[in-house]
């Protein structure tokens, strides 16, 4: 669906939705009007890619 997108936080993908009437624009990473989005919404895309340039952050506790 063109109104949904994944936002990764610390390497964990979370699904989000655009407000009603808007579509996710992959070029700008924002929700926008359908006419402004350069995306074919009738095609189904499965899966997603993770940019390995930004590895998941790690946290540690020092005592």
TrEMBL record:
GO molecular function ontology, one term from the record: chitin binding
The keyword Iron-sulfur appears for this protein: no
Annotated GO CC locations: extracellular region
InterPro entries xrefs: Chitin-bd_dom (IPR002557), Chitin-bd_dom_sf (IPR036508), Chitin_bind-dev_reg (IPR051940)
SMART domains: ChtBD2
All residue ranges annotated as the Chitin-binding type-2 domain in the record: 1-43
Keywords: Chitin-binding, Disulfide bond, Glycoprotein, Repeat, Signal
A Pfam family annotated for this UniProt entry: CBM_14
PROSITE patterns, sorted: CHIT_BIND_II
Keyword tRNA processing assigned: no
Protein's name in the database: Cuticular protein analogous to peritrophins 3-A2
Species the sequence originates in: Operophtera brumata (Winter moth)
Lineage: Eukaryota, Metazoa, Ecdysozoa, Arthropoda, Hexapoda
């Amino acid at each position: 669906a063109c109104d949904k997108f994944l936002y990764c936080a610390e390497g964990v993908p979370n699904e989000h939705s655009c407000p009603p009437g808007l579509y996710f624009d992959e070029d700008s990473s924002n929700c926008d009007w359908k006419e402004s989005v350069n995306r074919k919404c009738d095609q189904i895309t499965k899966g997603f890619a993770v940019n390995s340039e930004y590895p998941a952050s790690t946290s540690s506790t020092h005592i």
